[in-house]
Amino acid sequence: xxxxxxxxxxxxxxxxxxxxxxxxxxxxxxxxxxxxxxxxxxxxxxxxxxxxxxxxxxxxxxxxxxxxxxxxxxxxxxxxxxxxxxxxxxxxxxxxxxxxxxxxxxxxxxxxxxxxxx
Length: 118
Description:
Layout: H1 4-21, E1 23-27, E2 31-37, E3 55-63, E4 66-73, H2 83-91, E5 94-95, E6 99-104, H3 106-116
Parallel strand pairs: 2-3
Antiparallel strand pairs: 1-2, 3-4, 4-6, 5-6
């Protein structure tokens, strides 16, 4: 029925992943967020909890000294945070207000992790 079964499966998978593997973060010193480190997830992973957070973050390890980072802001959320500007200024990334990404070195990943951990 137009993929309803697949959508239900994905929703259950994402919900379990968030419950099991995600952790709370604080972005730019004041925005409540949630993060997950995985190569298998995207912004959709946070659908079940996005209304509870300002920012969602997915980090993927791409190699021994390289990570990709994606930040997402819930559409319609009125907060003074621009994901694209933040990642451009802090890590040389880019994007727009609601979604942005960058590639991090190990040192930048460590700094991002320390800066965002609660």
